[in-house]
Prior knowledge:
By secondary structure, this protein is α/β, with parallel strands linked by helices. 34% of the residues lie in helices and 16% in strands. The chain contains 8 helices and 10 strands. The strands form 2 sheets. A 7-stranded parallel β-sheet has the order 1-10-9-6-2-3-5, sandwiched between helices. It has a 3-stranded antiparallel β-sheet with strand order 4-8-7. Helix 1 (9-26) packs across helix 2. The termini are close together. It binds fructose -6-phosphate. Fructose -6-phosphate is lined by residues 35-39, 66-67, 133-135, 139-142.
Amino acid sequence: MEVIIENDAAAVAELAAHIIGELVRRKPDATLGLATGSTPVETYKALIKLHRETQLSFKNISTFNLDEYIGIAEDNAQSYRSFMQNKLFESIDIDVSRTYFPRCESDQNPAVAGLAYEHIISEVGGIDLQILGIGSNGHIGFNEPTSSFASKTRVKTLTPSTIADNSRLFADDEFQPHLAMTMGIATILATGKILLLATGRHKAQAVRDAVEGALSAICPASSLQLHQNAVLIVDSQAASKLKHTQYYQWARKENQIIKDKFGYFPSLGN
Length: 270
Ligand code: F6R
């Protein structure tokens, strides 16, 4: 894994948007994997700024979101489609007919919905770049601790800790789902490049377990150790429990020298 430590959340977002922007410029019909939650919101704002100020166009891209709640209608303000619409889609020139979510209606068989999602991802030729956040329990997407590294898109029951973490986003009398469809860990590992973003001290232990801990289903994000091109971009608070910080900073400088000399190289630093 390449570990990039920035001073603060704003710098994390700037760098993530820059990397995504570079990909979309190089490959205008790229396929992006998107995440919801608080962490990527600043990155989405930075992408909107790039769209407005540098004419970066998203009109030919396709997107696949990591997850979607079960039991919430698509047009409900709490759906992840509504989230993406508000935070990104309505402010860029994206074609919403090519934005996909792993939806499963309450009366639909989740196994069928999961297979259908995997099918659309493979029809478009796979995901070029996947954005991830990380749960304080180490989850990626809604692949909760003990999720199989071989898992594909499927239904997951959320853990009490995830439900508690996300309860801040629901009013007291509002229905908060405990089931969600999520891309699996194997789905995520099959993407071309992964950007995992983490900010804040409450993510420090999960980041430590993911990067420097053992490969284990108890920390789903540790599965990224198996990916050829996974980049973690974290702020200094989320990095505060890492033991090899100096090495990551040194390697970043050396990687920059190689990038400046030879240009784009997809799996540098892993
Ligand atoms: C969201 C998702 C989750 C979040 C994670 C962190 O689509 O899949 O894995 O990335 O729960 O959430 P925040 O960023 O709100 O701390």
